[in-house]
Structure to design on (835 residues):
């Protein structure tokens, strides 16, 4: 009995301290934990302040008199929804929002359709010329093609004034391809081998074996692409000349510019709502799709971003 | 392996050449239906509103009566973004027929032979030329002796003024200051004698923020122009023949700095002035924080801008006053420039035989029909004429030219407006304030501001700018003197100037002097 107790104690002793719930934290552990907690709370506050500032600014009424700081503590019953009403009632905003949604959906779809097969092919170790393919994929990552050649290409393949011009030039990101390839590398080769033995083609292996195991990376890379397409201002500015096709970042930029010259332009597109509130409301509303999407993707996101972090 | 890689790279390069070699598709001068297509890239009047709708009546008028098939595209709202887009289109040899362009980019396009000289085309637009293109405007688009664009007047010049709280003066029994000494006395009284009578020490004499640039305003910027003007050093550059060069070299600039420093030391300057942004500054005067400021006419008196002040201080009253005189009797509200919007014709458009149609389009825009249609929309739909013939919104609601639905029909108005009395009367209507019931008009304010003495600095906007290090050193040093971080003494001032010259200030000055002389900017 005594021997068994001694062995049990020894086993407990051998367990890693951090994972042993029976070991009471030392004073140093407690202090460390408190410091970490305080640090995290501070970080949270630092992140929340600009967010809260934007939110409260967007609800600020036209009659508000006070400093910026005081405005952050404006009572909710003093809030005004004029900025949101003006934005949602503005045809330009709705049109830009719709265009951005089309770019987001179309862009993510195209990007994944192009990125997944490329990453998979690059992960097939038996592929002839795999290193050359990798080199070719890496070249544009190292040497940016530049604005003018890209413009000429988009122009000459007839993409000007198409929403696809906003996302197609960036539909394959080398960085994302490499991350995805790393993930595919981590899938046990035996699974693919057994599928091949069962007569699966490479496409079938990709679709039936690899993809079901790759939800995390697909969601993560999809989020990366989605954020970049949603925020893409430059391509839209360059390639979209038809104003009816302008996406949200272009409109946001215009609103910001209008805010700078509203004393000259006495008539703004948003009626009597304060332009600063309009600016904040448009920033907030433009972030909403990402804010909504993130919680659904979060469980995959952590796993996806850990790819390649530990080399086995 | 290396051979294969080389082959692949060659193939990739070949593909790039093939894709890039096509060039833009050129439009022929006359379409099958007899119209001429004109592609116009313009600067929208209300950048955040949508584009002109496809059902705009102007399209039909131009097509049916002038044989013009007009295609419009809005340029980005920011000038640097506009430059990027124009230059990318130029690189792709796909410039539109007519487009708005900044002068620096226009200069580059002229060098590349991508825009056409327009000297001969003014005569084709007699009405428009009389309205919009005078000698100054043509000089703005002239490069190497030829005019390469049509330069229309931009924003209204001399639209700012020195304002003072009359109710505070009355409360303290003070007169409007006429010189710097009196100004200092009033500022001290405004700061320490509780001019608003609220029993709190919460007011200051003068309010400002740093509104500077590297062409016209300089540092400490336009909000202090009335002070700098009293010493004859308002504006970054002095374009007078006898004192041509940067104002900072003039001894009077040091004197002006001493006066501003004194304002800070006396505590009469709102202490936040070095950190205020424009919006903070504007929120501050609406909160009654200071009693003297330089402000723009509409920012002060337009209905939406004045409303918060009116609600907060129904008995408050700002008046526009003459700028104070300095030791030598000089006075100025500030230095002013005249800006223009340049529309250039591409060489391709001229080669395709479209020049005359473009002139016809512009002349139509300046006809009564085009002017009102582009400026305010359709009569009865987007505007009605008041008893003075001024377009007003009337009871047209959202469809009015100022309404959310109607304003998109006025996106081309910057191409037709030239700051006429009709435009200004329409733009700045007289109104009654909601709380105090005062009768206000930003136009009356504008006219009064324009009647004060200003320093002409026409062409400052074109002057060469310094490199970032020189500008940073210049601005930072002046800020240190004004904030007291560095003692403002003649020795320290001379040391600053020496160092400024050494790091590139002297070169900047020499370049500016040469540019002003070469381009006829010297008065």
């Amino acid at each position: 009995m005594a021997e068994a107790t001694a062995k049990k104690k020894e086993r407990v002793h051998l367990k890693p301290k951090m994972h042993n719930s029976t070991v009471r934290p030392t004073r140093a552990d407690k202090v460390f934990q408190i410091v970490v907690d305080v640090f995290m709370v501070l970080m949270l506050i630092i992140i929340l302040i600009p967010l809260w500032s934007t939110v409260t600014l967007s609800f600020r009424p036209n009659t508000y008199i006070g400093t910026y700081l005081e405005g952050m503590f404006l009572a909710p019953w003093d809030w005004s929804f004029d900025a949101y009403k003006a934005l949602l009632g503005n045809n330009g905003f709705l049109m830009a929002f719709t265009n951005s949604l089309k770019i987001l959906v179309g862009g993510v779809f195209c990007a994944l359709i192009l990125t997944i097969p490329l990453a998979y092919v690059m992960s097939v170790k038996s592929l002839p010329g795999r290193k050359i393919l990798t080199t070719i994929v890496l070249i544009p990552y190292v040497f940016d093609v530049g604005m003018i050649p890209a413009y000429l290409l988009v122009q000459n393949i007839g993409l000007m004034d198409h929403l696809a011009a906003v996302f197609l030039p960036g539909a394959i990101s080398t960085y994302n391809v490499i991350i995805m390839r790393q993930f595919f590398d981590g899938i046990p080769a035996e699974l693919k081998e057994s599928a091949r033995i069962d007569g699966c083609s490479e496409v079938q292996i990709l679709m039936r074996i690899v993809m079901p195991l790759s939800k995390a990376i697909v969601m993560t890379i999809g989020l990366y692409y989605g954020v970049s397409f949603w925020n893409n201002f430059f391509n839209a500015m360059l390639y979209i000349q038809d104003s009816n096709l302008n996406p949200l970042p272009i409109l946001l930029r215009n609103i910001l510019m209008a805010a700078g010259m509203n004393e000259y332009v006495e008539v703004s597109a948003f009626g009597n709502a304060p332009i600063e509130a309009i600016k904040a409301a448009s920033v907030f509303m433009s972030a909403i799709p990402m804010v909504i999407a993130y919680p659904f993707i979060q469980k995959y996101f952590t796993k996806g971003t850990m790819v390649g972090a530990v080399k086995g | 392996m290396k051979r294969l890689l080389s082959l692949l790279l060659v193939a990739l390069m070949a593909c790039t050449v093939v894709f890039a070699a096509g060039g833009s598709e050129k439009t022929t001068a006359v379409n099958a239906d007899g119209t001429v297509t004109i592609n116009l890239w313009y600067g929208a009047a209300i950048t955040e509103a949508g584009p002109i709708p496809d059902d705009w009546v102007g399209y039909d008028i131009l097509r049916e009566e002038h044989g013009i098939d007009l295609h419009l595209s809005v340029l980005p709202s920011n000038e640097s973004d506009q430059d990027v887009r124009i230059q990318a289109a130029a690189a792709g040899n796909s410039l539109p027929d007519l487009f708005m362009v900044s002068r620096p980019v226009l200069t580059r396009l002229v060098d590349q032979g991508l825009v056409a000289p327009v000297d001969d085309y003014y005569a084709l637009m007699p009405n428009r030329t009389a309205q919009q293109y005078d000698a100054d405007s043509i000089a703005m688009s002239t490069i190497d002796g030829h005019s390469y664009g049509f330069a229309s007047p931009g924003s209204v010049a001399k639209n700012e003024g020195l304002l003072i709280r009359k109710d505070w003066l009355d409360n303290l029994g003070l007169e409007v200051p006429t010189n710097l000494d009196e100004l200092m006395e009033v500022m001290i009284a405004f700061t320490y004698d509780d001019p608003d009578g609220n029993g709190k020490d919460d007011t200051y004499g003068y309010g400002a923020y740093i509104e500077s640039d590297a062409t016209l305003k300089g540092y400490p910027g336009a909000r202090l122009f009335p002070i700098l003007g009293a010493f004859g050093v308002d504006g970054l550059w002095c374009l007078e023949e006898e004192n041509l060069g940067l104002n900072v070299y003039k001894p009077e600039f040091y004197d002006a700095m001493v006066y501003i420093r004194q304002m800070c030391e006396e505590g009469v300057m709102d202490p936040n002035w070095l950190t205020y942004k424009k919006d903070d500054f504007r929120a501050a005067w609406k909160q009654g924080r200071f009693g003297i400021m330089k402000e723009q006419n509409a920012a002060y008196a337009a209905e939406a801008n004045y409303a918060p002040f009116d609600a907060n201080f129904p008995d408050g009253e700002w008046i526009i006053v003459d700028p104070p005189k300095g030791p030598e009797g000089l006075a100025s509200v500030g230095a002013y420039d005249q800006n223009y919007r340049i529309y250039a014709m591409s060489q391709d458009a001229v080669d395709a035989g479209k020049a005359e149609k473009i002139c016809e389009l512009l002349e139509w825009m300046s006809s009564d029909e085009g002017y009102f249609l582009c400026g305010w929309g359709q009569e009865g739909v987007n505007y009605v004429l008041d008893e003075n013939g001024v377009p007003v919104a009337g009871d047209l609601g959202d469809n009015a030219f100022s309404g959310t639905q109607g304003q998109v029909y006025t996106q081309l108005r910057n191409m037709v407006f030239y700051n006429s009395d009709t435009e200004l009367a329409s733009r700045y209507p007289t109104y009654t304030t909601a709380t105090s019931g005062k009768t206000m008009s930003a136009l009356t304010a504008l006219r009064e501001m324009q009647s004060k003495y200003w320093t002409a600095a026409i062409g400052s906007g074109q002057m060469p700018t310094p490199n970032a290090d020189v500008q940073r050193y210049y601005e930072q040093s002046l800020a240190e003197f004004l904030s007291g971080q560095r003692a403002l003494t003649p020795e320290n001032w001379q040391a600053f100037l020496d160092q400024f010259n050494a790091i590139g200030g002297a070169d900047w000055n020499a370049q500016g002097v040469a540019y002003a002389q070469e381009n006829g900017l010297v008065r």
Q: What stands out?
A: Residues 223 and 461 of chain B are 18 Å apart (CA to CA). The two ends of chain B are 71 Å apart (CA to CA).
